[in-house]
Specification:
CATH superfamily of the largest domain: P-loop containing nucleotide triphosphate hydrolases
Shape: elongated
Radius of gyration: 20 Å
Structural class: alpha/beta
Number of domains: 2
Order of helices and strands: EEHEHEHHEHEHE
Strand order of the largest sheet: 4-5-6-3-7
Largest sheet: 5 strands, parallel
CATH topology of the largest domain: Rossmann fold
Number of strands: 7
Bound molecules: zinc ion
CATH architecture of the largest domain: 3-Layer(aba) Sandwich
Number of helices: 6
Distance between the termini: 51 Å
Length: about 230
């Protein structure tokens, strides 16, 4: 069924182009189609969710942030933020700590070293950590997916942070509400904490007080002190 506004062309003419010449602008139907593609490309299945009216993530889309939330919650908020942002040509990518680790291990495996990590996904599509980490406009790393302890995990995450920083591109680190990124977390290290200490924390869970305004602290237990 083709669109009533553009009759399926995907573009409409609008006055006010350069030198007074009417210009073709993408029709709303085209923009929404592209937004769905963007969502799906960022996280398989994301385009099936419907966007809500607003999300705190909108303000943090292009800023380094620590996002605290569960998987489903993150998905809905991200879908909403991208939908409201309406910039479908921005490449946003959600990866897990396990994927990050596998990409890093890929570098090792291509040098024929033995891999001892049970979470290693040999056919991960990114050929290296650099490939995976550097291309997106926004990289989102979900922690807590990787199950097996690998002492290099924190090092890999810290390297990802530094690669993003080097290319001046934003990154989110997403933590589970009950597994704060602090000492004892699979991914935590002093070096990582130092490199993300100035990042904002964006809680997605109810009853969680924001801790991104300088001195204000979350109510109750101080769990996110990065
Ligand atoms: Zn249309």
């Amino acid at each position: 069924m083709s669109c009533e506004i553009c009759e399926g062309y995907g573009f409409v003419q609008e006055d006010g182009g350069p030198l007074g010449i009417p210009q073709a602008v993408p029709c709303e139907c085209r923009v929404e189609k592209d937004l769905n593609l963007q969502a799906e490309r960022s996280w398989a299945g994301l385009s099936n969710l419907s966007a809500k009216k607003k999300t705190p993530l909108s303000k943090f889309l292009w800023k380094n942030s620590i996002v605290v939330g569960e998987k489903d919650n993150l998905a809905t908020h991200l879908r909403t933020a991208l939908w409201l942002e309406r910039r479908p040509n921005r490449f946003v990518k959600v990866v897990s700590d396990a994927t990050l680790m596998s990409a890093w291990l890929n570098n090792l495996s291509s040098s024929n070293r033995e891999i001892y990590d049970p979470d290693f996904i040999r056919d991960v599509r990114a050929s290296s950590l650099e490939d995976l980490v550097e291309s997106p406009s926004l990289l989102i790393v979900r922690l807590g997916v990787k199950g097996a302890r690998n002492s290099a995990m924190s090092e890999v995450l810290t390297e990802a942070v530094s690669l993003r920083d080097h290319s001046s591109k934003p990154m989110w680190i997403v933590t589970e509400p009950d597994r704060p990124l602090e000492e004892g977390h699979l991914c935590w290290s002093r070096a990582l904490q130092d490199s993300i200490s100035h990042w904002d924390t964006v809680p997605l869970i109810k009853g969680y007080t924001k801790n991104n305004q300088g001195n204000s602290q979350p109510s109750g237990k101080k769990r996110y002190n990065l």
